[in-house]
Amino acid sequence: MRGLSVKPYEAFGASALTHPIVWFVIPSLVSNLFIYLHSIYPPFQLASAPRYWVMVVIAETFAVVVEAFYFRWIGKEKTWRWSFLANMTSVCLGLASRALWGWP
Fold first, then answer.
1. How many angstroms separate the CA atoms of 28 and 7, rounded?
2. What is the pLDDT along the chain (104 residues), one digit of tens a residue?
3. In angstroms, rounded to a whole number, what is the distance separating the alpha carbons of residues 94 and 104?
């Protein structure tokens, strides 16, 4: 991330902190949350598309916050702006890939 003036290993460190949780933990937690909410309040149902978007918002919020704190911890400034920009770029590219090729 040139604007933040980080070295490649520092940028990799931010992704290494958040990607496993965003890909493997948060989807399961969100799914379990919806199952739990439906169990205590049966009329609560949410189709799979809105569930996906709720999961995306939670996952990306988590990534932005954790990466911004990580960059602040290693001594960078304007971390929120760059973390938000990097993650929104990643989200847009991921959504474009999903729309064009059905992956991820």
1. 32
2. 566 788 899 989 999 999 999 999 999 999 999 999 888 988 878 787 888 899 999 999 999 999 999 999 999 888 999 899 989 999 999 999 999 999 87
3. 7
